[in-house]
Amino acid sequence: MANPFSGRNYDFAQFIEAKNLIGGEWVSARSGKTEEVVNPRFGKAMGTLVISDAADVDAAVQAAKAAQKGWAEWPVRERAQVMHRLKQLMDENLDELSWLLSHENGKTFAQSRGEVLKGIECVEMGASLQNMAAGEQLDVSRGVNCKVIHEPIGVVAGVLPFNFPTMVPLWMLPQALVAGNGFILKPSEKVPYGAMRLAELLEEAGLPTGVLNIVNGAKEVVTAIIDHEEIGAVAFVGSTRVAKLVYERGSKTGKKMLCLGGAKNHLLMVPDADLELTSTNVVGSYTGCAGQRCMAASVLLAIGDVDHIIADIIKKSEEIVVGENIGAIVDQDSKTRILSIIDDAEKNGAKIIVDGRGKGPKEGYWVGPTIIDGVTTEMRCYKEEIFGPVLSILRVDTLEEAFQIENANPYGNAAAIYTTNGGIADRAIKRFEAGMVGVNIGVPVPREPFAFGGWNDSKFGHGDMTGIDGFKYWTRPRKVTVKWALQSDETWMG
User: Fold this and answer.
1) DSSP readout, 394-454?
2) How many whole angstroms separate alpha carbon 421 and alpha carbon 274?
3) % of the chain with per-residue pLDDT over 70
4) Per DSSP, which regions of 142-243 are E strands?
């Protein structure tokens, strides 16, 4: 297939049709149905994608099943070499991948580049698995050795969100492929092109035909993946509502399921926080990727007299130019929902101290940085995951009160504290009810080889999706006990 994108600027570009990749061939869906793919910066169609059904999923599974056995016979070192070559190809095509991502997702070029670079870091982790994936072994008694071998599950699948179309598949693919699995990838129907380009680069890197298959579509494809008897494990990233449904349905089939959901990340700010570090970091956290990330700051718990820091957060927020320093919202429905939450807060007595409504270019879907002060825990802007560049400020008197508010929210993805006091920082780390926490960092994403994953309503399933935990998720452990000679001191255990 020809390279679907060659643009190198923000000008509108027309893309090819996003087809399914099945058995090494780019094919249309059997239904013949298609749907528009919209460029968020312009609010108009940049291409189409095929809308698949269960028959397409089954065809992809059979192709993966046919290719997986031979792929699993490759030594792990040789499978990892594909990741080495993929990293090189992504480095060489960094600008192209970044612009492609910007067009389909709406991010600025700089933020798109950051996503691709993070994806490359995930590929590096996959390349290193040849040195990390050795199973444990131990002589457990005289003449008896026990060991664990991590073997592929077979055919596995990943369902992707719209907000990180290049990075999130690379949370899954390196570990799953190096483990020896065949993979079915279901991109978000809003952003299918990044996955297509990754598949091309993996083919160029030497991944055998049929090991990776892509099925485009909507809910029917997700349901077919979950229900398919020959898919042994599924990873999902999306909203909490859907993550929970997917987890429950998939678990009933006996599959391994790991489903990451939404978030309501709380930042705590105490009076001793460093002014410049804190204000810069908070603004970057809530506005980065237009707030469309599960790690974005959503709630700022202002403890005591911190108005001097809030004033600097306001100043920096007002300096952001919509369309230049902050990207677009993914679609009109998302923009409408974000604006309705801001309107609701204002209607219920909160104060909009930075107003992003009506900001940005005339074309496309835009919301500027927005800060809402005087928020209470009963307001929509506090309770709902906004997924936009909106920061809600709650005023509290004590650190203990802030902990109680953070602990009571149903999500458990991330939390952070801004302070120059080590004792306060240590206390917060221990008190936060979140799987990922930070000190003076509002996007506490663990870097490889550490794993990504939250708690509570932010994650359904066991283990984490990246790092060595991700490799273990995509494998099944075989326990081997070996004995070669009769021992004079045998026990009843033999």
Assistant:
1) EEES-HHHHHHHHHHSSEESEEEEE-S-HHHHHHHHHH--SSEEEES-SS-PPPTTSPP--
2) 10
3) 97
4) 144-152, 155-159, 182-186, 212-214, 233-237
Q: Which of the residues 122, 259, 289, 294 is marked catalytic?
A: 294
Q: Would you say residue 488 has pLDDT above 80? A: no
CATH number of 265-439: 3.40.309.10
How many CB atoms sit inside 10 A of residue 252's CB?
11
Q: In this predicted structure, what is the pLDDT of residue 131? A: 86
DSSP strands (E only) in 331-369 = 351-354
Question: How many helices and strands (H and E) does the chain possess?
Answer: 15, 22
* The residue to which tokens 């490799």 are assigned: 471
Residue type, 171: W
Q: Is 294 in the active site?
A: yes
* Average pLDDT value over all residues in the chain: 95
Fold of 20-261+458-479: Aldehyde Dehydrogenase; Chain A, domain 1 (3.40.605)
Q: What is the DSSP letter of 304?
A: S
1 pLDDT higher than 60: no
Report, as an integer, the average pLDDT of 390-398. Answer: 98
Where along the chain do its domains lie? 20-261+458-479, 265-439
Strands (E), 264-399: 265-269, 297-303, 351-354, 370-373, 390-396
Alpha-carbon span 356 to 386, nearest angstrom: 14
Separation CA 36–CA 17 (nearest Å): 9
Q: What is the pLDDT of residues 277-303, one digit of tens each?
A: 999 999 999 999 999 999 999 999 999
Is 0.90 surpassed by the pTM of this model?
yes
The backbone torsions φ and ψ at residue 84, rounded to the nearest 5 degrees and listed phi first, read -55, -45
Token output for 34: 């298609």
d(Cα 285, Cα 298) in Å, to the nearest integer?
9
For residue 259, give the H/E element and its range: strand 256-260
What integer pLDDT is reported at residue 133 of this predicted model? 79
Q: Give the amino acid at 453.
A: G
Q: Of 359, 388, 391, 356, nearest to 373 (Cα)? A: 391
